[in-house]
Amino acid sequence: MTNFIPNTNIEIIQPDHPGGPFKHALFDFDGTISLIREGWQQIMIPMMVEFLLETPEAEDEASLTKLVTEFVTRLTGKQTIYQMIELADEIKQRGGQPKEAVEYKHIYLDRLWQRIEHRVAGLKNGQLSPAEMVVPGSLALLAALRARGVTCYLASGTDEPYVLDESAALGVASYFNGGIYGALDNYKNFSKKMVIERILRENHLSGDSLLTFGDGYVEIENTVEVGGLAVGVASNEATRQGIDAWKRQRLIEAGASLIIPDFREQAALLTYLDEVSPP
User: Fold this and answer.
1) Which domains are seen in the chain, by residue range?
2) 20 to 30 A Cα–Cα from 210, which one of 1, 96, 115, 221?
3) Is the model's pTM score more than 0.85?
């Protein structure tokens, strides 16, 4: 039986979780705040299938599409390079000679840019409003958290220069007074887990002081591991309405305490987070 905060679409998955009020909040970026990169899977998956079809022992296109879709979705939320490392491994397994994973990443980013360049340009020249390119209610939630004195952090598996540029274009960068963190060329020097550990260490916090919002399993899992409260954002990026059922299930498996479709009901969500008591 599902359990919701009364008169809302906010689903309570784990009633016994850390209590507020929280003073530190971590956000994922793509799919949680930003919709600039909506549709990225439609670029990455066909690109990978294309390279795999060129290998000596390639299966048919349908089989490869199923294979790639599985590992791309499984690794979503981690740095993009990890999906490319998996691609290189799959190419090698089929008798191919893979490029370096970073080369595949650059090919993917070039192709993705062709899809999203007009969105970034539109935000910068005023033809698009930020409200059109964010998960609904994001701006109001960020403003409300900052007004309450909450320190906000942004951590993304997307390369840091893009995160900095796109968060500025959306007008949200200033809300993240705790810092904006993205993937680095030396990928071993960055992870969301490392960001969480840094937040707790530098602020002398226990894990149950951390509130996290994310649409990927990584930030949810990492938050639960330290005892924090994880809110799963099961956003439907294409329609900007309702729940993405696949995301919801993935977020629940990762340990999310709450599931929300977006931030439209941010007032009710914040009231709940303020009032809830530790178990």
Assistant:
1) 11-35+134-275 (3.40.50.1000), 41-125 (no CATH)
2) 1
3) yes
